[in-house]
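At this stage, I put together a protein sequence along with its fold in token form, as given directly below:
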Amino acid sequence: WTEVDSRIMVRVLSKEKEDGKQADGGWKKGSWTAVVNELKKQGSTKDPAKTVQKCIDHWAVLKSSFVAVQRLWALSGFGWDDSQKIVTATDEVWDAYLAYAHWRKNAILLYDEMLFLVDGLVATVAGAFH
């Protein structure tokens, strides 16, 4: 998945949510078809075609990453650089959380969009962030 593909997916899912097509546990099947169709029109041409199942799987990865970053950010000693969409901390704090080292240099560029999409579906600490 390219960054462009992920942005397309999140944009389509945002529209689906605005249109009331987000179910309690996730997305209605037609939402995934809308994502696939939009990816066919605008997505990366060097990647293999995205199926409904590949979209569902990628959404799970995006959501899992979002939740991991939120949980990390909520820990004592961590902060947030909103301009870079990255978790911040001192070297000492990062050293204490080596299991999360991936997030030291990796941004969640779609953070705000993901917050909109998962709000109400997963436990978020949105009040702490905005």
